[in-house]
Records
---
Amino acid sequence: MKISNSLKRVIILELSIPVALLILGIYHGLMQTIYRAGILHQTSFLKLEYYQGLTLHGVINALVLTTFFAVAFGHATIAFYLKKEPDRRWTWISFWLMVAGAVLAAWAMLAGKASVLYTFYPPLKAHPFFYLGAALLIVGSWIPLFNWARIYVAWKKDNKENKTPLAVIGTLVNFIVWFVCTLAVAYEVLVLLLPWAMGFTTAVNVTLARTLFWFFGHALVYFWLLPAYIMFYTMLPKLAGGKLYSDLAGRIAFFSFLIYSIPVGVHHQFSDPSISRGIKFFQGFLTYGVAIPSFITAFTIAASLEYAGRQRGAKGWFGWMVKLPYLDPDRYLFAYLISGLILFIFGGLTGIVNASYSLNNVVHNTAWIPGHFHMTVAGPVFLAIIGMSTYLYSKTAGKRVFLPKLNVIIPYLWSIGVLIFSTGLMWGGLIGEPRRTNLGMTYLNRDNPLFHPEWVPTTTLALCGGIIMFIAGMMFILVFFGTLFSKRKEEAILELPVSEVYHDEKRIPLFDKFQPWLVIMAVIIVLAYTPAVINATQNPGPGAPPFTPDSPVPIVTEKTK
Amino acid sequence: MAVLDKYERRVLISLGATVALFIFSILYAKGRYKSDVPECLPFNKAYTEPKVNKIDSTTYQVFAVAQMWQFQPAEIYVPVGSVVDFFLTSKDVVHGFDIAEKNANMMAVYGNINKTTVKFEKPGVYNITCHEYCGIGHQNMQARVIVNYPEQ
């Protein structure tokens, strides 16, 4: 379909700005593996300090790229399926708020005033602009939800008996989860941290801040993941040459994410003090609930791909696996999505380990954790984002993909890199290698008394994987900007691949409206989080003064003097 | 017409069974092997002074205090077979506390007390590694539990 120039420009900017920033984000990803393998024994390289770079890596890759992309993809999905564009003025306000937020936070990080990592746990204090930037980015990303909800309600009025398109359900679920979970982090940032960082309050309750952060932090991973799920359900079967096995399974999966994404955050705090074992167990139990939609998806998508393989002439039990269009440059999106799915098998299984209550003692905060999440967020999420960024950009700008044969092998190369990298990290984690640590200074430095020889093979393996990932990442940057700087060759249109449905089940009203699910969502969140917040307010003692990363002496403000 | 395809339904049922098995395993480990997450204690100022208390010949309490960028006490001597209760807090930012060989894993948080119990059955040196970023000196932060030091 044709779209207005305004919407086209917003989508293109929201896709290309984070890809430009990604150059820095990926660069420091590679640098970390070099430091950690003990090749560099220094605090900084080329004026970028290790933990400053680690903060940039996390914030750019996991917050800025993902949020900008989710908004752009949401605009595209809603406009494409409901045939109506979001309000022009609010779309631009949302865009400028997100850009302003990203610029403020980027300045604080690049100036070295916010080396607090993307989790910004107090009482480590960042520059106020870092918190303000995060808040603006989030508020900017809220605005489209209200626009899309209005479009959806109007569409529903005219289509009472028609099923809402699955991609629309997915997009709305995703941004409702995002809106609710970011309320907690907005409270943390604007009420607890910003006044404290500016010296208006003297102490902060660290456990409460962490609890609010993880109310947001785990739902965040589904906010990353759901755009990829929308692509798996509504595009992948079509790209493979088949049909979606079950439309209803997709609806069940998306509504399960709506109710289970948030009340599971305490499983990131299994090792925290002041939160009772009961609530940790209960939220660990609910985390298994959120694994269910992923299992459903694994079956439904595999069944859809099997159908596609058979349509293409496959025989026997496993023949369909070799009959899929893995290396077709015209269907490169298939390559990006299938590689992500394969990585997600391992990402999902290791995630179940993390959620398993006392098993967390084995892996908590070790290198196992980044080993796990590089097979989720740097797996299906990242591959879906970069594949779709190239796709949406080339369609809406009317351009042909630069180096199409190179483009189609990028996801496979990336996946090989991730598998090697994550194997190294997870192996290291199981033998105590910590995450978020400049290992090259001490533990991987032969001249240091803290040298740990058993982490040499694990960090070397991660380095090898990291180099492969870096090469694949730079190939993507080349393809994306090569496309961007090429001349327009085709008509500029908004077009998404649309899968037909194999089992087109009867419309079940329960799976075609939001109200009952929103009620269940609210009830479970209240049940799961009321005791956690009570624990976090009552068990801790005095609040903490602010500290900067370079000194054990707290910052003295006018109030504390 | 069935609401859901029969294979789709079978997958849902086997999923339910798998999740039930996982939950049973966690509960079994909790009951049979006392495998659990750290204990939840309200804040008490008594734990903020680093020290080692010997309760009897094989029972110890360690009040561990994490700070930028060391643990106090930095070296803890106990005999083989000791059961040690670690009470952990932080003087400043958030720190980690990981004795990897013993799967003892806690966060040290200002104004909060964390607790876990470890039994040291074999002689040796057990590193306590800080595994949460705590500022520019984070990679230096390690303490040791020394089990059956010959002189002790």
---
Amino acid sequence: MTECKTSVILCTCGKQLGLDYDFLVRQIDELDSTSVVVLHDLVCQPEGLDKITELVAEGPVVVAACTSQKIKPRIDQFLSSKKKNSSLVHYVNIREHSAWVHDDQKEASEKTLAMIRGMIRRACLSEPLVVEKKDIPNHVTVIGGGIAGIEAALSLENLGYSVTLIELTDELGGHVAHLPVVAPTGKSGKEILSSRLKSLKESKNIEVLYNSHVRFVEGELGNFTIHYLSESQKEKTIRTSAVVLAMGFTEFKPIGMDEYRYGTNPDVVTQYELSQMISSGNLERPSDGKPVKDVIMVQCVGSRSEDYKRDCSKLCCTFAIDNSLEILHHNPEAQIRVIYMDIRVPFENEMIYKESREKGVDYIRGRVSMVWEKNGETYVRFYDSLLDQHFEVSPDLVVLSSAILPPDGLAELGETLGYYLEEDGHVKELYGKLRRNETRRRGVVAVGAITRPQFVSESITEAQAGALMIHNELQQGAIEKLSRGAVLSIDDCVGCSLCAQQCPRGVPLMIEQTEAEAEDEAKKILFKAAIDTLNCHACGVCQSLCPSGATQLNFLNNEQLWSEIEAVLENVGPDDPQTLCFYCEECSVSTIDIVGTRKLKYPANTRMISVPCAGRVSIIDILKAFENGASTVMIAACETDRCHVGGTGNEIAQVQVDVAREILNAIGWNGERVDMFRMFSAEPERFTNAINEMVRRAKEFGPTPVHKGTAGKWMEVSK
Amino acid sequence: MADPVLIIGAGVAGMTAAVELADSGVDVILVDRLSTIGGNALDLYKAFPTDDCFYCFEGNRDRPGIRKCFYRSAMIDQPNISLYVNSEVGEITPKNGLFQVKLDVGPVYVNPKKCTLCGLCLTHSKAFTFTSPQCQPQSVKYDPSKSDEGDKKAESECPTRAINLDAQPTEETITVSDIVLATGYHEMKPVNMDEYGYGKIPNVITQLELAQILDPNGPSRGKLVRPSDGASVESVLMVQCVGSRDENHYPFCSKICCVFAIKHANIIALERTSAKVSVVYMDIRTYDRHEKYYRDARDAGVEFVRGRVTRIESGDDGKLDIIVYDSLLDKYLKFNVDLFVLSSALEPPPGIHTLSKSLGLSLSSGYFTPADRASGNEVVIGKHIYACGGALGPAEVPESVTQARAVASKILQSRK
């Protein structure tokens, strides 16, 4: 038994919780690891906070009260104002996870005791966490000199960073530079760019590299090295702390779509090519220079198409209308027909749609079936779905509103920059609802059309927001934060690189061991992992995958979790089937809390253990639970593809569960004793259904061989 | 400058801006008219594009990457944020480059810092309610109009003495350096559109009302039922562009109603009673990757009818007879449904005129509009005045969040 002692403060929530506190105090007091147990009516109020402050001075404290999600911020803040280390405080939720969800006082009290017992063991083995400082270069690299890249560079400069802006071509401004008009501003792209280009020129802290191509990137947040090919075709490097991806988009060239004759007939152009023609003042038939009087525009060329891009490109309707109005501005007599499926113009862009109809643009709901040439003229055949008729016309110009695609080379650069891509090839954002600008890789932010088609003003807003995301990470180069996360013991690393491959935020790096002089050349490990705890997201995926226990969370190491499992399941016998639930501290804790707040009931022969992310639970942890007498084990995780810590922690957990099931089956147990469930707090029944199911299975499958005394004998005792 | 920033409106946009600024050491005064923050998101159940809860937003910086449910946001315990609920912004006077702002602060019957949600008062008096498990501040609410004999007892027995029944409204004057407008949008109640029978026929509802019916935390616990009699729903007709793209109401497109409606259609068709759903539309506007919802809906058997609703009649059995003109078939179709759902326009909140007048700002389509449109800076509304989210027009959560961050970015840039 460890010598460490922990104090416990037990809250009665103003004497409103139906638990047997006499029993709890007595039992907790008897535990070897308890130094003192304090019964308190209101832990969350000033007197309670004072008491915690007093206890923390003596060592770790277990706070058994309502959900830590509610009281932890208050306690943390109070302790930091008293200059006390809040990492010594550990929380057990005895209200939402026990008293409020079980009717039987005795059962609820026993479950409460078990969870407190577990947390005492975890607390006993905890080390206080400390705030660490780190200095990094106050420099950011922006890749792509379109409107988003320019705005990001200017915003970052204003926030106090020096910036290198790398542009592939010899001019800044990207697509916007050639737009004759940008809805809803009514200004040309050049006008929107001009003041920004001026600021860029006057800027002292932004360096622009033209005709430069980023080849690959090494390093991590705070210490990236960008390798690029300079204007003079020389290999060069930049050391930088963060990267902004702003490479914009490419317009789809519909050469493969025979029906439109693009690339064969010069009078068939894309919408962006038309923009360029208008903005350079060359609105004439490309084939013979004759004036353009009759135009057919075709929407959704390559978009909303099962063969090309499945989704909508969002901007094309507005672009087509902008260009129609520009043509009519130059030649009010021109006839313009837009062949569409749905006209999609958000918010006030509806007004320019209306204006264009009033000015005579003809909108035809239907599809073009073919384009051909006869006697030097272009012919188009289309179907009008409202009139249910086919028509043939001979326009001067056919304009294809072509799909908006990601730029070339994204996948290649992603190999070293570590971001993921969407199915459509755009850069995948960390989380579609709230973290649009961040990528899977820490320190790599994506702004503008590189993540999805975006209007000009949206790209500008994203660039400003992206600059803030970088500022939040870099803190102008002077990072000072709590060192809470994975810590790597280099001597134990076997160089398998699982952590580097699977970390949801791409934090571990594999470093070549140049100085390691192994006695035996064959045993020499060429690459070993390196983890900067200050960059870590503290999910624990690396820990659950590490074959040698080299990387462990400094607030929940293997020993801590294993002894917690042991203590939580102490005294569990064959007549007392228990379900152990590992729940992540993200969506699952919320769901379980909301179940509690709504006072939905579920059986009390369940034990809860919190983990930062479901991905922290390893096969060993699951088997430890069975070894200590659990009848069934469940993992509560975030919904598929919605894992908070980068989207993959829950998938790692799924793999662990799958393997654990195979192991159980292989040794003759029932694999269904372990399962994983996805949940979010809008649907609290997801948790109650899940735990009811696991309690049912515990009952159905009966005691495990651990209780039958046959464990390890390679057979399950049949009923 | 050490003066605080005033954020008007504590929906997703306002909360995000507040937390981002507070994390960067800027003092923030966050004001909301309602007693619970979260705005529209609190009532919307499932969010697109991620199909999980609506009520979450980005948490604080010490755990990067971690988003938070509203109830976990610790808004009342966060350093640098002063939260005023039940409060309204009054007169605003520019003074020496700053703004002097009058706040009408509602009576604080229940001190949110003291309320532990123990539930004792709820057992004594009906005047106390607990609106939602996700409410923030996490505290019960007191409605003096429902005062009964039990409320005094609740006040005296409250374990933390959180209740003060004699609380009075107060007035405060604050001085702030910047103002962030995060006033959001409201769903229009189409009571003035006789053709739809809204407000007269109980089984005619709006999409927001449907969201509450579908919400497992809502009154019917997620069961799709008719408001008139609680009978289960077998058929639903939705109609798009109610009050939007309409010269008599709002000429603009409300932008998110198509996705909103189709999301609900999919929930009904795939996760609930498998009721039959039809959607009457003019153009389906599922921008960008939202197209997926449209594809999924067609795969799930949701019927799409291009046209307009022309007449609605209510039958004795609570069912509705609805005549729809189908512009593709050039025919009139007759539907007999349990529930008729209106995708109603998203309109600016009441009070936006007073606010814009006291700030000397002009509105466009009823919403705030960028100070210099040609700059493309959509969040900059005036000198030291910013806007984000629904204050600028109908917006989905991700846009509101991005705009809120852009506002925080702009304010930090101006302070460097």
